[in-house]
Design brief:
The protein contains 5 helices and 11 strands, in the order αβαββββββααβββαβ. The chain is of the alpha+beta class.
């Protein structure tokens, strides 16, 4: 697992110049600062956006679909739980220790040659708005925990009453194919924009 973690970090570093070029072109009213301190990154801080007019700051956690290079997926996986040494841990979406205000979801990542990324899509998601919206439709953290408990041991896609599986989202249990056995809430990118919690940057 460590080697995969290192490989992912290496890919993330290779992706950074492309992301920074998009931020510079598209975020005209914002300056940005990359955070390289590991402790801060573990708190969900990859990027600090700074509003040039008001001096307000926004904390961004970059989430990249690096397992799907040269593919275009219409969905994104929001981590609810994972396992470490056989113990269930809180995933990043509801983790109170994370300081994240926005997720930068990086999808449709394309690479022409090894280590060189040429294009991607970036969708900004307001974390607080997303969690509030999920609560409004009946998918609070507590209810999701109950659903996960009821379906423990299962593998694959689990539909939930509050979401249309084809156009909105569903739960996915990776109990057989991933060491950390994550449980993710899979949400359609179009749905996130439609409900007003996300905005496509590029």
């Amino acid at each position: 697992m460590k080697s995969k973690f290192k490989a992912d970090l290496s890919k993330e570093k290779q992706l950074t110049p492309l992301l920074d070029s998009y931020y510079q072109k598209r975020l005209k009213h914002y300056g940005f600062e990359r955070v390289s301190h590991l402790k801060k990154q573990l708190q969900g801080i990859d990027l600090i956006l700074k509003d040039k007019q008001s001096d307000k700051q926004f904390i961004v956690d970059e989430k990249a679909q690096l397992d799907y290079v040269n593919e275009s997926l219409p969905t994104f996986a929001f981590e609810l739980f994972y396992q470490k040494n056989g113990i269930q841990k809180q995933g990043w979406l509801f983790d109170a220790s994370k300081k994240t205000q926005f997720y930068a979801l990086i999808t449709s990542i394309y690479s022409d040659e090894d280590g060189v990324f040429t294009s991607c899509n970036i969708t900004f998601v307001n974390r607080e708005k997303l969690i509030l919206r999920l609560e409004e439709i009946g998918l609070s953290r507590k209810h999701l925990e109950q659903l996960i408990f009821e379906n423990r041991g299962k593998h694959g896609k689990i539909n939930v009453n509050q979401l249309d599986a084809k156009t909105e989202g569903y739960l996915f249990f990776s109990t057989k194919n991933k060491a950390e056995k994550p449980v993710n809430l899979i949400l359609k990118l179009d749905y996130l924009e439609l409900i007003g919690v996300a905005k496509r940057l590029v």
